[in-house]
Amino acid sequence: MELAALVESQIAADRRRGFPVDFDSEAGRLAQLEKDLIGLMGEVGEFANVLKKVRLAVAHKDYRGPSLGEVAPDLREELADVLIYLIRLSVILGGNLENDLIRKMRINDGRYGPLEQ
């Protein structure tokens, strides 16, 4: 499935579940952006917390933490949650995440192209 189809599917699911993506006022849109930003930061925090435990296990032989291999599925799930919030934020802002990503990749090609070997 292409990114545009994934975005459409996620937003349709959000609408069916009553998660707002359409607004009559800027105030409502802003309030939802803030709520989704908090959700996004929470998911990034969950990712960071798991990674912290892996780092502690690597750095301290007596710490009983998970290995990266053990938690990789959990980390990928957190990243999927992050992507859902990014999709929502983009749609609420009237964006097209696929086109925005392609545009930014082109900018980065120009910016970081000299670093390529």
Kindly describe this structure.
The chain is mainly α and 117 residues long. It has one domain: Helix Hairpins (Orthogonal Bundle), CATH 1.10.287. The protein has helices at residues 3-17, 26-59, 68-92, 97-112. α2 packs antiparallel against α3 (68-92).
Find the CATH topology.
Helix Hairpins
**Total domain modules:** 1
The averaged pLDDT comes out at 96
Total helical elements: 4
Q: Which value, in Å, is the CA radius of gyration?
A: 18 Å
Globally, the shape reads extended
Taken in chain order, the helices and strands follow as HHHH
What are the defining features of this structure?
117 residues, mainly alpha, Helix Hairpins, 4 helices, extended
Provide a short characterization of the protein structure:
This protein has helices at residues 3-17, 26-59, 68-92, 97-112. The chain has 117 residues and is mainly α.
Topology:
Layout lengths: L2 H15 L8 H34 L8 H25 L4 H16 L5
Helix pairs in contact: 2-3
